[in-house]
Design brief:
single chain; 7-stranded mixed β-sheet; about 20% strand; RNA-binding
Length: about 950
RNA sequence: GCUCGAGUGGUGGAAUUGGUAGACACGCAAGACUUAAAAUCUUGUGCCUUAUGGGCGUGCGGGUUCAAGUCCCGCCUCGAGUACCA
């Protein structure tokens, strides 16, 4: 066999391992490059052809950078804590560690076949105690920190205690819940009294006992324990982060999610909202990911305004982005859950309000969201005062106001906001017009460019001026202030699950304390069943005291960390994976620094990619990192979609299957009274894609595939039979999954690597179609035939290469280099194909050309390149060779083929000496015989000559 | 609804700064080899056409330009994200 890829690939996999070709060490004499692919969760299903797409791309880039002389870190590992292994444990009793181990072995086997240049000695697994020891250590760092809004930085909790000791809470500007003091159990702080609003003196602080101080500090820490509304998923028995909930259902499994008040650990990511937003400008990520993060953070600038409730001491605080419309307020709406609802409601309205609150609480979050058109609400009977006019403004409640955003209350300006408008119209509330020239007879006018009216001191103003004037007036009245509001909520960090990192915390008198560093890691204790206890405690509650390797206080923390904990910092551990003293040494962290190229799916935009940025900022503020952002450049690979095969079954005659091109003809010939049209008549069944080849069905294969097809009848009976097809996500249940290992066995890893790149731009989603793989395989075979003949005899000569061959070579060096520099992986393959075609045509077997060609091939087809490199007589690895340099001298042409256009339409080409000036070209074109055909009078209106490129004649 | 992308042959796609639209590959067709098939090789392949020629062609309609897939304006379709966010 001329291109024996099986032999070649197996040989080099062994050799590379033996020679430790891909081992990476820190080398200060070389510039570093850090290429990273998102590590996978090792699922039971194994890899499909979609997974390696990004891995191959980053592998090619890493190899290319190594050729260019960079010291390249390109590691791989496993995000090995997760729900599926635990679900399997619940069903079968198998320890998740065992399942995980097995799945990792399968992943490794599949990955090894693909020829990646990973340094496996740096592998990390998030579920390995030597790894999660440091996840726990980072948790402790975050626990021991607070966010200083004055310095805009994370600071150790000690600096806060210093401030408390010096001045109490005065001069402390910390990121915390604005009304944190309301959550404090005042019975434990008798000296605060009922008017406590969160301020205390140094003397107060010093007179507090340990418990009291800890309770106060808990409201400042960057990770804190609090009763918060969480997304509870009963089916999974755990809480979920906001990004783990899609359309009111759990992202994994699609189970219903309800809101529940629970005492949970949270991470104060909201403190970083502005920095997470601002620093997006410093990273080279796709616009779409940046946009998704911006939307998720959801910054709105506006004002918070207080309305005094008539006859009460209470005020209602609202957030508005349009303080300029303050004179258009016709009512105030509270969320049904708003704490003041019970306080302000009048006796007459009590029953109605109670009924409405009750009905709203019964509706799930999902129902409330989907039911936008149905306007509901209820009047409380109470009024508040307009801060400027003193007008009595009715207070309503309505479920279009969300309790969880802003203050849970809005000042309704029906003339300027459509939802308020709809609400007012529905309940026949009078609408005040406040903008000149605005037509509000049909709908609200939300524009900012019309001058205000009926607005006292704002009359005639518009836009920013009006907003600023309104805000300063509101401040003068002491009725509020300008404010920036974010949608980003703190991230819930507790999971009521077993297979995750234990939180390094124990409780004494229900106060949490950290486990000492030298006791870490707190490892997972063995338990008898992976289910919650009968009391509803998390699975870890099943562990007895002696089952824990570390046990302190009254009890250990029973929650584990969420999936994103381990993945928020794994890129750091690759730098120094075996360090037992630190999570990463300062030296190695400074050397490898940020990830230069991060390859991964866009689906992590609001989860992993946001949390990693958050932890990086915390660790940077605390002095553990020298950089502020983890991933400098990111490319999101698209999804590879499957091409499902569809078999048409006659519903009237369920054992008969009809060829896709005979559906109408069959339906006419054998009409069915029940199913009239073709659409009604046929059931579309998905069958294993390996039973079809280019839609043509293997009938015997189908009969053998599943019992129900054993006696299948086909129409037409004897001629060829075609199935339909559908492009959709690759999934086991559609029988459309392609296993890369199977393709590796059939065509070789080098072919698969080239083919996955050849499919198109990596960022784009595209259907997987095995048909084209032959073409790419042929290319590699054709290329190898430049070096060796059918019998394996070396054809390479030391003859001087022809001018044409040198031109082909240098053209290709230029193309490959330029394309890789702009991350255009797909066009490199066609460039190499063109080179191969041309060199074959030129019968080029010259060493000078082929040696360099091998280098160009090496990132894409490393096994073949290594083999050819050895065949050329080299003993060192091709991976250590320097990247070829493009020499323009080889591309210089004596003649240039000018395309000649008339009025912009290309008509013919003319070959002219390269040194011709504009005038000479013009002259030559006019003298050319074919020109007369398009220019009968020989006199052009105008002539455009771009030397070396094009001629355009304007007729 | 809002935000961000994308629309090019039968298919995947190429065209990097406005300068030969459809590279490269698949598929298809014809031919060679063969008893036959597979494999391989050669040639052709955007559409229309009265065919050594001409016309039309990058979602649609306008515009700028000597020249537009590329730039500008308006629209349509598809995909992704997000959604009573005040």
């Amino acid at each position: 066999m001329e291109y024996n890829f099986r032999e070649i690939e197996q040989k080099w996999i062994k050799e590379w391992r033996k020679r430790e070709t891909y081992k990476v060490t820190e080398d200060p004499s070389k510039e570093k490059f850090y290429a990273l692919s998102m590590f996978p969760y090792p699922s039971g299903a194994g890899l499909h052809v979609g997974h390696p797409l990004g891995y191959i791309a980053s592998d090619i880039y890493a190899r290319y950078k190594k050729h260019q002389g960079f010291n390249v870190l390109h590691p791989m590992g496993y995000d090995s804590f997760g729900l599926p292994a635990e679900q399997y444990a619940i069903e079968t009793g198998t320890h998740p560690a065992e399942t995980t181990e097995k799945n990792i072995a399968r992943y490794r086997e599949q990955l090894d076949k693909l020829g990646f240049n990973y340094d496996w000695s740096r592998e990390v697994r998030t579920s390995d105690p030597s790894y999660y020891k440091w996840t726990q250590w980072i948790f402790k760092q975050i626990f021991n920190s607070w966010y200083n809004n004055d310095t805009k930085k994370t600071e150790p909790i000690a600096t806060l205690i210093e401030k408390f000791n010096a001045n109490g809470s005065y001069n402390v500007n910390a990121a915390q819940d604005e009304e944190w003091f309301k959550a404090l159990d005042l019975e434990k702080f008798p000296f605060f009294g009922e008017y406590f609003v969160g301020e205390f003196t140094a003397t107060d602080w010093q007179s507090m006992n340990e418990e009291q101080q800890q309770l106060i500090l808990m409201h400042y820490r960057l990770t804190y324990l609090a009763n918060s509304w969480v997304n509870w998923c009963p089916a999974l028995g755990t809480v979920l982060a906001n990004d783990e909930v899609k359309d009111g259902k759990s992202e994994r499994g699609g189970h219903p999610v309800v809101q529940k008040l629970m005492r949970q650990w949270s991470m104060r990511i909201s403190a970083f909202a502005q920095r997470l937003l601002d620093d997006l400008d410093t990273v080279d990520w796709s616009d779409s990911i940046k946009e998704i993060q911006r939307n998720w953070i959801g910054r709105s600038k506006g004002a918070s305004v207080k309305f005094i409730v008539a006859g009460h001491s209470e005020t209602i605080e609202v957030f508005t982005t349009r303080p300029d419309t303050i004179f258009g307020v016709d009512f105030v709406t509270l969320a049904p859950e708003h704490p003041l609802v019970n306080v302000v409601t009048t006796a007459e309205q009590k029953a109605d309000i109670a009924a409405y609150v009750q009905s709203a609480s019964l509706k799930s979050e999902r129902d409330r969201q989907s039911d936008v058109k149905n306007i509901t609400g209820c009047f409380t009977g109470a009024y508040c005062e307009h801060p400027f006019t003193g007008k009595q403004i009715p207070i309503w409640i309505g479920d279009y106001v969300l309790a969880s955003y802003g203050t849970g209350a809005v000042m309704a300006v029906p003339s300027g906001d459509q939802r308020d408008y709809d609400f007012a119209t529905h309940f026949k509330i009078e609408i005040t017009a406040i903008m000149e020239g605005a037509d509000i007879s049909e709908q609200a006018d939300a524009s900012k460019d019309k001058p205000l009216m009926n607005s006292d001191f704002l009359n005639g103003l518009k836009g920013k001026k009006a907003v600023n004037a309104a805000v300063s007036a509101i401040m003068d009245k002491d009725a509020g202030r300008g404010k920036v509001q974010y949608r980003l909520r703190d991230a819930v960090f507790s999971r009521q699950r077993y297979w995750g990192e234990p939180v390094p915390v124990y409780f004494k008198n229900e106060i949490p304390y950290l486990i000492e560093d030298d006791q870490l890691p707190v490892t997972l204790p063995p338990i008898d069943e992976y289910l919650p206890t009968e009391d509803g405690d998390p699975p870890l509650a099943r562990a007895k005291k002696e089952d824990w390797d570390v046990f302190e206080g009254d009890r250990m923390e029973l929650n584990t960390m969420p999936g994103w904990a381990g993945s928020s910092w794994y890129f750091l551990r690759y730098m120094d994976p075996h360090n037992t003293e630190e999570f990463v040494s300062e030296e190695k962290m400074k050397y490898w620094n940020q990830v230069d190229l991060y390859m991964g799916g866009a689906e992590h935009a609001t989860g992993h990619l946001l949390y990693s940025r958050f932890w990086t900022k915390v660790l940077c503020d605390l002095g553990h990192l020298s950089f502020n952002e983890p991933f400098k450049k990111m490319i999101n690979q698209g999804m590879i979609l499957g091409r499902s095969s569809i078999l048409n079954r006659d519903k009237a005659n369920p054992n008969t299957y009809v060829c896709v091109s005979h559906l109408e003809d069959y339906n006419e010939k054998f009409p069915s009274p029940e199913y009239k049209t073709v659409d009604e008549r046929f059931q579309k069944l998905r069958i294993d894609i390996h039973l079809t080849d280019n839609d043509s069905l293997d009938k015997e294969g189908l009969k053998a595939w599943q019992k129900e097809y054993f006696n299948a009848e086909f129409y037409p009976k004897d001629s060829g039979f075609s199935c339909g097809h559908e492009v959709e996500k690759m999934s086991k249940r559609w029988y459309n999954v392609e296993d890369p290992s199977v393709l590796c066995d059939k065509f070789g890893a080098d072919t698969l690597r080239c083919y996955e790149m050849f499919l198109g731009p990596v960022e784009q989603s595209k259907p997987w179609d095995t048909k084209g793989i032959n073409g790419v395989h042929n290319f590699l075979r054709k290329l190898s035939r430049l070096y060796i003949d059918k019998e394996g005899v070396l054809l390479v000569t030391d003859d001087a290469p022809s001018k044409d061959s040198m031109k082909t070579l240098h053209k290709t060096i230029k193309k490959v280099t330029e394309d890789l520099n702009r991350f255009s992986w797909n066009t490199v393959v066609s460039g190499m194909m063109i080179a191969t075609n041309e060199l074959t045509e030129q019968k080029c077997h010259s060493r000078a050309v082929l040696e360099t060609l091998t280098l160009l091939l090496s990132p894409y087809a490393p096994h073949l390149a290594e083999e050819l490199w050895e065949k050329l007589g080299n003993s060192d690895s091709v991976t250590t060779q320097e990247w070829p340099v493009f020499d323009a001298a080889h591309l210089v042409e004596s003649e240039i083929h000018y395309p000649v256009s008339f009025n912009g339409k290309m008509r013919f080409k003319i070959s002219l000496p390269a040194e011709f000036t504009k005038d000479q070209v013009e002259e030559a074109v006019l003298a050319y015989e074919k020109t007369a055909q398009y220019l009968p009078d020989g006199k052009p209106k105008k002539m455009i000559v771009v030397p070396g490129r094009i001629v355009n004649v304007v007729v």
